[in-house]
Amino acid sequence: MLKKPKGKLGVLLPGMGAVATTFIAGVVAVRKGLSQPIGSLSQMGTIRLGKRTEKRNPKVKDFIQLAQLKDMVFGGWDIFEDNVYEAAVHAGVLEKELLTKLKRDLTKIKPMKAVFDKKYVKKLDGTHIKKGRTKMALAKALMNDIDTFKKENKCDRLVMVWCGSTEIYIKESKVHKTIESFEEGLKNNDPNIAPSMIYAYAAIKKGVPYANGAPNLSCDIPALVNLAKELNVPICGKDFKTGQTLMKTILAPGLKARSLGIEGWFSTNILGNRDGEVLDDPDNFKTKEVSKLGVLEEILEPDKHPELYKNLYHKVRINYYPPRGDAKEGWDNIDIRGWLDYPMQIKVDFLCRDSILAAPLVLDLAIFLDLASRAEMGGIQEWLSFYFKSPQAGKGIPPFHDIFVQMMKLKNTLRHLQGEDLITHLGLDYYD
Fold it and tell me: Which domains does the chain have, with CATH numbers?
């Protein structure tokens, strides 16, 4: 049974840099009537109900009971002690004129000391950091922060969305297999337990739904997946789908639908924000690369369509270029084959804004995770794959990457929760 969203919803954000501050500032701006929540499915999207002839297409927020923007309270952790206004000015995403109008609200939000280890993010160096003899001690400190924040802000419910940097590439190992081995690893400072995993563990233990916006393993390990199931806590991830990968999940399904061959897909990115600086390190880039490379293979299914895709060459590059700041450029060259093997090319140059695209995803994930929690939907929330480059799915189940399939799954989940018929595009509902 879906519980009503009573009281305040606290949104906790590990990593209060460009993405998090753009999200918070944006919500405050919308609450003040200064802008619209463009890019947010939960706020701007509509959902079809019943047959097309019924013409029932309410907005998602009017169809199902979601947490309202006015009831949101923000907090989080960062390695720098700047308040949200100062951090937003430093990030350089939003215009100073807008931030000045929001200054009174944003200066009140100050980060808690972060769990951070430079070994996992070599390019960053902050001093606003928790001290602890063991990683378990740090996890308990985060749990204390969660309790304190909830009490001081009089929150009824909490969610957590990781907005921190990409950590170095870590493979799943023995310490990640069971909650017993994981907790033993926390006590013994196992190097295979990164800070993002400590946040995920603390959130799940406190019953706080958790979303991972970076390509780190984080909650995507058996120990934490099983813990989330056991405690009935919603989790999802990983890696916000914003710029270049968003375009791939739009374009690739179309090319496949037309049975056009693809010989190569070369992708390069230029960005100059904190994320770009972090990804300038090869160990951190490896984590991002693995996340970005899996998209095409799942969509195109080369094993089923070897004539079209078995020789596809897929390359991804990310280049740190400080003058560009948060205004990322994602450039793609796609070599395709058509009738009688005649070659063609597609060029895509997406001059996007990384944090502007990510901010509404943070909002939707916070709102939909809270919905999942109120509906007592614990464990992996595969219906939220729509928001991620490398979506979590059940063991042995390949994730969906096709954005249109993801959208159908998300909206059908909402229909199911409200007792509406699912849309399958079969039968008279499609042809009426």
Answer: 8-240+355-417 (3.40.50.720), 246-351 (3.30.360.10)
pLDDT exceeds 70 at position 431 = no
Write out pLDDT tens, residues 251-297.
Answer: 999 999 999 999 999 999 998 877 777 877 777 777 767 766 788 99
Of the ranges 171-180, 276-285, 382-391, which one carries the lowest mean pLDDT score?
Answer: 276-285
Interval 213-244: pLDDT, tens: 999 999 999 999 999 999 999 999 999 999 89
Nearest alpha carbon to residue 161 among 194, 130, 199, 124: 199
pTM (predicted TM-score): 0.93
Q: How many CA atoms lie within 13 A of 148 on its CB side?
A: 9
Query: Tokens 């169809």 correspond to what residue?
Result: 63
